[in-house]
Amino acid sequence: MTDKETVRAILCKVRHGLHPSQSSWAHDEFLQIGDLDAFLKVHHDAELENFVRLNQQNKDFYGQEITDEVLEFIRENPAMLAPVRKGNKLICMAFPSNMNA
């Protein structure tokens, strides 16, 4: 939807030190699905399923316990799991450093 330099500025310069190759799965999956809204839904649903599983198995997410309250917080903030499209913008939300609090 935009030029490569804009994509690089938006997606590649994060404080976590992510490398573009770590997102290659998304590029491949998007091309396979072929529709942005469908891709975002598939990605969101898969991520939510993962957090439900972590909650049920009493496992953590990078050291954070996924309690029932945390799972509800995640459900109420879908942009934490996958971008949410609002018109021509994608809204993303970072995970709080302490979701329990």
Q: What's the gist of this structure?
A:
By secondary structure, this protein is mainly alpha-helical.
Low-confidence stretches: none
Give the count of helical stretches: 4
Q: Beta-strand level of the residues, as a percent range? A: 5-15%
Strand order of the largest sheet: 1-2
Mean pLDDT: 88
The number of E-state strands comes to: 4
Distance between the termini: 38 Å
Our Rg estimate from Cα atoms comes to: 15 Å
What is the global morphology? globular
Q: Helicity range of the residues?
A: 40-55%
What count of domains describes the coordinates?
A: 2
Helical/strand content category? mainly alpha
The secondary-structure element order is: HHHEEHEE
Note the main sheet.
2 strands, antiparallel
What would the keywords be for this entry?
mainly alpha, two-stranded antiparallel sheet, 4 strands, 10% strand
Question: Could you give the topology of this structure?
Answer:
Blueprint: H1 4-11, H2 24-33, H3 36-56, E1 60-61, E2 64-65, H4 68-76, E3 84-86, E4 89-91
Antiparallel strand pairs: 1-2, 3-4
Helix pairs in contact: 3-4
